[in-house]
Amino acid sequence: MTNISRLANFVADAARIVESGSGEAAIVAELSPKLKALVSVDDWLPAAYAVADGKAYQQHLLYADPLDRFSVVSFVWGPGQGTPIHDHRVWGLVGVLRGEEISVSYARSGDGSLEAGPAERLPQGSVGAVSPDIGDIHAISNGLPDRSSISIHVYGGNIGTIRRSIFDARTGSARDFISGYSNEAVPNLWLRRQAETA
Amino acid sequence: MTNISRLANFVADAARIVESGSGEAAIVAELSPKLKALVSVDDWLPAAYAVADGKAYQQHLLYADPLDRFSVVSFVWGPGQGTPIHDHRVWGLVGVLRGEEISVSYARSGDGSLEAGPAERLPQGSVGAVSPDIGDIHAISNGLPDRSSISIHVYGGNIGTIRRSIFDARTGSARDFISGYSNEAVPNLWLRRQAETA
Ligand SMILES: [Fe+3]
Ligand SMILES: [Fe+3]
Ligand SMILES: [Mg+2]
To answer: Is residue A74 within 8 angstroms of chain B, CB to CB?
Structure first.
């Protein structure tokens, strides 16, 4: 039995913060330490949402606000797995729950191509951010060659449903994609039936 | 593949209505026709949440607001199954998706016992209401002797987590209970991964 109430409490905090009417910078500033606390203890993610796949990384939805104001997703990276270069169109926070990740940011250069910044290592317990304001284009990959890594991402929208872009670094050209999610069912964050019936 | 977007749209409507700041009567008046529309088409409930159990009726959480403002639950009644006499402490709407239900309301009489009102038949497609304001004590059972019935309930709180009462009709005495939920996972209301990955 996992300690799912940690995730329930985080989702409640996120709902409160996102519904407060604060702007992006304030939301991200308030939510980052909550995500850091969530990924500092690895006892709450149910096994179904920690499963890697040999073919591609998995993005398991954990919770999405019905009014598309935020979503929480578990990304599971097998050895050697990573994303193409992509954007988000909304703010995003990345917290590393297990293992580690490598994040590379990209900036448009004069000739239209995308120039890679330095590879940033995100160790277990760390939190990074992306957004249209602070830099929205990156690629993420597993930082471990021999094991899965898992990161918990929070976005300022229902990320699996947003039409966004995948980029070719050399030409800078973009093509549309909508990521969807890997899972048919999300965790029940609240208590399961006790002895009692009614 | 079920048409899960019907449920996603209903949950979004419910979130909008519940967050509007209206009072209970206005919320219930606005939400009732949405629930009636939801239960008028039986093509959206995933099979996992339509499963009866030989021992007791099932209450499958479909969605709960992280701030406990509302919840949506699928109740599955096998032949002969029904609830004890119970209350809710919050408003509740009952919409019959499949089969039919019998609802009996109870009122406190002079000697402290609970007096049963007439048995009300809720056919497929109908919507009923309970609440502390309009009468909060009832018992529900399957109206069909030979098949399962399924009803979709919406409550003005996270019903599985609320401490409420089960009653003895003769003495009127109450005992505490918290119902919980039957399921470990709830439906992903949003799109599953397409061909594309990122
Ligand atoms: Fe990303
Ligand atoms: Fe009831
Ligand atoms: Mg909400």
So the answer is: no
Evaluate if residue B63 carries a pLDDT over 70.
yes
| pLDDT at residue A122 in the model | 97
Q: Which has more pLDDT, B192 or A151?
A: A151
Query: Is B86 one of the annotated binding-site residues?
Result: yes
Out of B14, B15, B181, closest to residue A188 by CB: B181
Q: Which of residues 83-142 of A touch B (CB under 8 A)?
A: 83-84, 86
Three-class HEC string of chain A: CCCCHHHHHHHHHHHHHHHCCCCHHHHHHHHHHHHHHHHCCCCCCCHHHCCCCCCCCEEEEEEECCCCCCEEEEEEECCCCECCEECCCCCEEEEEEECCEEEEEEEECCCCCEEEEEEEEECCCCEEEEECCCECCEEEEECCCCCCEEEEEEECCCHHHCCEEEECCCCCCEEEECCCCCCCEEECCCCCCCCCCC
pLDDT in tens, B70-94: 999 999 999 999 999 999 999 999 9
Residue B193: pLDDT band by 50, 70, 90 thresholds?
Answer: low
Using the beta-carbon criterion (under 8 Å), do A14 and B66 form an inter-chain contact?
yes
**With 70 as the cut, is the pLDDT of residue B27 above it?**
yes
Fold category of A5-183 in CATH: Jelly Rolls (2.60.120)
Q: For residues B198 and B60, is the Cβ–Cβ distance under 8 A? A: no
Give every residue of chain A whose pLDDT is below 50, as ranges.
195-198
What is the residue extent of each domain of chain B? Answer: 5-183
Q: Please tell me the distance from the alpha carbon of residue B195 to that of residue B162, in angstroms, as a whole number.
A: 42
Instruction: Give the predicted TM-score (pTM) of the model.
Output: 0.94
Which residues line ion ligand 3, judged by CB < 5 Å? A 65; B 65
